[in-house]
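One record is set out below.
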Amino acid sequence: MRVTQYKALGLSFATLVDRERGILEGLRPLAVQSDSVTSDAQLLSAYRQVAEELVARAMPVTATAFHGQLYQRVAQQLQIIPGWDESVAFSSSSSQWPIFEDAPGALQYLSKFYRLILIAPPHGIDVTALSRRLPVEFDAIIEPCDDDWHRSLESALLRLGLERSTLLPVRSTEADDPWTDRVDFPVCTLRRGHNLPWNHSPQAMDGKRCEYASLADLAHAHQKALHA
């Protein structure tokens, strides 16, 4: 598979934003206060569990209200009375979750060759706030708040004059990445190694597998393919 054969990239939110780091930094004050040992994996699991419960209630709220409720629920699970300042800070934190260092430059390069489509998380994200922090304008933003988000994607592709086969999905390794369950066409995976970076591993150097350690590596693979 050659990355140059596609005309659009469907980038999931977590390929651009270090969502897990943002969640952990926001929830760590609760872990410090907890009597039980709370690992990063447990905090992330608690976040996802409570997020799913809030979404199941089908009550539309802002990203700030969503994360305010979520912080309170996680605190209850850990049998902690949450501090007001920490709760307020977490409720507004999603708009400032850290962007991966390579993302802005890679997006600028990739935007010269692809239409860029952002696949947002299904809940609790201020996509407009994120867009203002990036140097490119997305050609379409898809918010998968229900099972029919693929219909919204099809509509966006139609508006852009693109066939579905010309879109390359680019997913993260997060458990709830919107592209995780897609198996009907090739999917490119960014396996960012926080502990053991593998930029020079066979997977990251093999363009046929479409697995890279960063968005910058995908941009580099595109450059190599152009001159192959």
About this structure: The mean pLDDT is 85. The chain is about 40% helix and 10% strand. The CA atoms of residues 199 and 205 lie 8 Å apart. The chain has two domains: 3-18+99-226, 19-96.
